């Protein structure tokens, strides 16, 4: 009888201990969820100006701090309208100048300024006794047409020796769109080799100058601990999440609608809008390459892959999130097609996918932020490490070892 009492007492004590631990973990989980930054909080509105031809541009002299769940950074725009150190329009005579066009992956607001791929390339080149000036002309949200249009209208004054355009997969579909996330953008065609906007001047959207306030935190429904654990399982181990759901241990994930821009990876069926976008991409890039060469510079195309193209785990998550059939989607489709366009239009072509994939390790992690999807510090540094030998080995720059 005494033994039974002891067993019952121990079980009761264990139950109370477990309950207390779970209670503490639940409180901790609620604190974690409630203290998260609210996600996008309108930071870009602080340093963005309406432009009747390009749609928008960066505001010279503006500054803002990003406070996102995965990073906190400061963005300062220089007098030329770039997220870069201060640059003179006149290039330095003792070193080549590389001008890099792109979107938020080049602008690099997810890392500090000196951690961006352009600044890292400049710093690495100086350390390698091959000094060069690398100008960051990336603007968040731009697609290839806006980047090409900006260069043809304004880029010549910078007298670059090399002009790089970084292409991301969602650039393609937006070549067929006149709106990006509620902001009007130009539609561009090529006539007699010249880039021609079809719908400019654009109309400034109402309330474009208003600064949105941070969104309210999402209410916590049910157990915060369960929410946090399932979130980590879904993002960190999507294959196990799918297996547990198949075994009935978890609720199956209800797939999201497939974003239109993702359809450039689809291998089954010909989608009219996607094919039209590819034709437009070909003509715009061909015109851009010709313009770059006419101005005495060398054209380079850099493919900036999405996280799911680099990380097998991220690809599993993408398939699960959108309920995709793996046999109908090819993660190499965009970079392969862009490589063909580069070859036919005269761009030197660098695909960053192999270098970014090789950077993944247990100690350093992945080169992307898992939730935000942009390159992290490792990703930007890896891109710069790949770019330096590329520009040197392909004769794109002439190294002049000078006193720093």
Give the fraction of residues assigned to helices: 40-55%
Overall geometric form:
elongated
Order of helices and strands: HHEEEEEHHEHEHEEEEHHHEHHHEHH
What portion of residues belong to β-strands? Answer: 5-15%
Radius of gyration, whole Å: 25 Å
Taking pLDDT < 50 over at least 5 consecutive residues as the criterion, the unreliable ranges are none
* Measured distance between first and last alpha carbons: 86 Å
Number of helices: 14
User: Average pLDDT value?
Assistant: 87
Briefly note the structural class of the backbone: alpha/beta
Describe the model.
The protein is about 40% helix and about 15% strand. It has helices spanning about 1-35, 45, 105, 115-125, 145-155, 170-175, 225-235, 240-245, 270-295, 305-310, 310-320, 335-345, 355-360, 375-395, and strands at about 50, 55-60, 65, 70-75, 95-100, 135-140, 160-165, 180, 185, 190, 195, 300-305, 350. The strands form five sheets. Strands 6-5-7-12-13 form a five-stranded parallel beta sheet, with helices on both faces. Helix 7 packs across helix 8 and helix 9 (about 270-295) runs parallel beside helix 12 (about 335-345). The longest helix has about 35 residues, at about 1-35. The mean pLDDT is about 85.
């Amino acid at each position: 009888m005494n033994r039974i009492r002891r067993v019952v007492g121990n079980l009761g004590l264990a139950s109370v201990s477990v309950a207390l631990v779970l209670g503490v973990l639940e409180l901790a989980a609620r604190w974690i969820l409630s203290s998260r930054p609210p996600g996008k909080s309108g930071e870009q509105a602080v340093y963005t100006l309406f432009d009747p031809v390009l749609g928008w541009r960066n505001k010279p002299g503006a500054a803002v701090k990003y406070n996102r769940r995965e990073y906190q950074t400061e963005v300062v725009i220089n007098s030329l309208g770039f997220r870069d150190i201060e640059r003179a329009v006149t290039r330095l005579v003792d070193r080549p100048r590389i001008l890099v066009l792109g979107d938020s992956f080049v602008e690099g607001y997810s890392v500090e300024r000196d951690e961006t791929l352009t600044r890292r390339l400049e710093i690495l080149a100086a350390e390698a006794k091959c000094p060069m000036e690398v100008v960051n002309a990336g603007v968040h949200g731009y697609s290839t047409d806006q980047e090409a249009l900006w260069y043809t209208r304004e880029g010549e004054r910078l007298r670059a020796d090399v002009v790089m355009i970084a292409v991301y997969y969602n650039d393609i579909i937006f070549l067929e769109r006149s709106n990006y996330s509620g902001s009007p953008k130009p539609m561009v065609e090529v006539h007699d080799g010249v880039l021609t906007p079809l719908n400019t001047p654009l109309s400034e959207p109402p309330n474009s100058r208003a600064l949105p306030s941070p969104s309210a935190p999402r209410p916590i429904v049910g157990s915060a601990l369960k929410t946090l654990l399932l979130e980590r399982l879904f993002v960190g181990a999507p294959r196990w999440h799918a297996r547990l759901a198949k075994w009935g241990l978890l609720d199956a994930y209800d797939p999201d609608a497939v974003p239109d821009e993702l359809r450039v990876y689809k291998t089954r069926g010909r989608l009219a809008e996607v094919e039209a976008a590819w034709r437009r991409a070909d003509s715009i890039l061909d015109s851009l390459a010709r313009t770059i060469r006419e101005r005495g510079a060398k054209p380079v195309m850099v493919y900036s892959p999405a996280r799911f193209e680099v990380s097998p785990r991220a690809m599993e998550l993408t398939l699960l999130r959108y309920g995709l059939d793996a046999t109908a989607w090819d993660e190499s489709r965009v970079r392969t097609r862009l490589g063909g366009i580069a070859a036919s239009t005269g761009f030197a072509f660098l695909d960053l996918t192999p270098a970014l994939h090789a950077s993944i390790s247990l100690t350093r992690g992945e080169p992307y932020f898992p939730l935000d999807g942009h390159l992290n510090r490792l990703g930007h540094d890896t891109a710069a490490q790949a770019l330096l030998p590329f520009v040197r080995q392909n004769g794109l720059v002439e190294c002049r070892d000078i006193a720093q």
